[in-house]
Amino acid sequence: MKRVETIAEPDVVLIGGGIMSATLGVLLHELDPTLKIQIVEALAEVARESSNPWNNAGTGHAALCELNYTKERPDGSVDISKALEINEAFELSKQFWAYLVQRGLLPDPADFITAVPHMSFVHGKADQAFLRRRYETMKSHHFFAEMEYAEDRTTIRKWAPLLLDGRAAAEPLAATRAEGGTDVNFGALTQSLVDHLASRDVVKIATSHQVRDIRRKRDGRWELTVRNLKKNINRSITAPFVFVGAGGASLPLLQKSKIPEGKGFGGFPVSGQFLVCDNPEIVKRHHAKVYGKAAVGAPPMSVPHLDTRMIDGKNTLLFGPFAGFSPKFLKSGSLFDLPGSVRLSNLVPMLAVGKDNLDLTRYLIEQVMQSPEDRLEALREFFPAAELADWHLLTAGQRVQIIKQDADKGGVLQFGTEIVAAADGSIAALLGASPGASTAVDVMLDIIGKCFSKRLPGWKAKLREMVPSYGKSLQNDVDLYRSVRAKADKVLGL
């Protein structure tokens, strides 16, 4: 990577050195190679917060295994609309990555994406019946036509033997399996995207630089006060467009912009921990991402899963996450992040969310108070023969869930991601968490549509070259879906 630099007046400023900024930067550079782009990252390296492979689940979220994306309706039927949306978004990401690999702009795809089956696993008659209904509903759509279902132990053991080791013989079980699932190292992917950008003269990367203030100038441009953390000096950067993709730090920066669209938003931080297997004999017996059902009151990001991961070329096995609480908005953040984000405009929504989410509060208290034996008991729901000596505890990343104003309740806690953009498209911020990274291309295409609408007509041909299904519906066009997926999977080695 070239030496750290800043441009005084770039065309685009991307705040945050994670997968979101990297994706938007590459998209914009491909659309207009003359754009001057400035990336600002507070840490000494990019991809060290939420995009770091040890700080996220690494699941290529395609709704193949995540039960929280397929809600059960009151009549017992299963709503798969969210699953369809997420699956299509991930296919867009794969198309874009395949384009970059074919152009030689990304290295060997095996460095960042690996084929790993995605499974859902439940026990008990009620959950068994739910999973069967979910499978039958999903199987009818072409996105999930390859999904398999099993209740017999022989099949489940073949798919994931650890699930059956030491399990009581009379317990009703059910599992689904999608062989086309993936594990994604978003840290490696982000680094490769940023390395590509850094090789371009019109792109500058400033690490160890922190945005301290954002204010609107009279000419409509944005002036950023940027602190060089190594030299302890401030710099000023002025640009007509700013993207705030700083993970948990996006909310405070959005508040500093004072755009009316950002008023009323609050944030609720949730930290995570994983158990990591230290026994290679156990690791090599498991090759799947196995997701279960979340505990009552748990946030969706806390859905338990026993996960095969490929990190830095090495297979490993993680179980979790175990939720915790910290007022920090970033793993490297400040204890004053949460209290410092409170404003008159979001005080009512935050108080309303606190009142209406007592079950979440109880859940977090229980999680924080857990002992090693409690965590082992949770692991044994998936791997009954697990022994504590084979695992160690890892602290993962921080996630900031969105709190929004609501006319009826005063405020609601929202899970997922949300774009907040100024009416004139001059600034946009990304708030929220999962499925996040997996849908980066879809989210960034949405930002381009909102913030570069005047240039969009001239960019559509290039966008379709990069993402062949851009502007079309994979949900409604089975032939298009099969065609673009087959091509992308072949290029990515899946």
UniProtKB/TrEMBL annotation:
UniProt record, GO biological process: tricarboxylic acid cycle
Would the keyword Ligase be found if you checked this record's keyword annotation?
A: no
Any transmembrane segments, and where? 12-29
InterPro entries xrefs: FAD/NAD-bd_sf (IPR036188), MQO (IPR006231)
- Transmembrane helix among the record's keywords? yes
Q: Part of which pathway?
A: Carbohydrate metabolism; tricarboxylic acid cycle; oxaloacetate from (S)-malate (quinone route): step 1/1
Family according to the record: Belongs to the MQO family.
Which named protein is this? Answer: Probable malate:quinone oxidoreductase
Which organism is this entry from?
Luteolibacter luteus
